[in-house]
Specification:
With about 110 residues, the protein is mostly helical. It is built from four helices and no strands. It is elongated and about 65 Å long. The mean pLDDT is about 85.
């Protein structure tokens, strides 16, 4: 569950992708949670930059896998990737209900 929460925190703190999120991730994983050391985090950043795909999700998965194995990696990735769509659905629900009720009451 901690890996999921850390993914949600990273999703809220980071705007955009890639290099802009790395300082937030470093603060979260090194300073706040102390899940990895400075050298381990640096190695993870370098490895994620070498691999194709989004850097931020790869770092979240690597750190979460170190903390809680493969289940933790999936939980961290889920927290990172699905926070924004779930919030958009929740916040747009009121608008959708208003549109439907306006259509029905016509």
């Amino acid at each position: 569950f901690e890996c999921f929460i850390s993914g949600v925190v990273i999703a809220f703190l980071s705007f955009g992708v890639g290099a802009s999120a790395i300082p937030f991730m470093k603060k979260e994983y090194l300073d706040n949670r102390k899940w990895v050391t400075e050298d381990e985090f640096s190695d993870m950043v370098v490895l994620s930059n070498l691999l194709p795909g989004p850097t931020i999700s790869q770092i979240v998965m690597l750190v979460s896998k170190k903390k809680a194995g493969y289940i933790g990696a999936l939980a961290g990735l889920f927290g990172l990737l699905f926070t924004t769509p779930i919030l958009l659905i929740i916040f747009s629900f009121e608008h959708i209900v208003k549109q439907i009720s306006a259509f029905i009451l016509k």
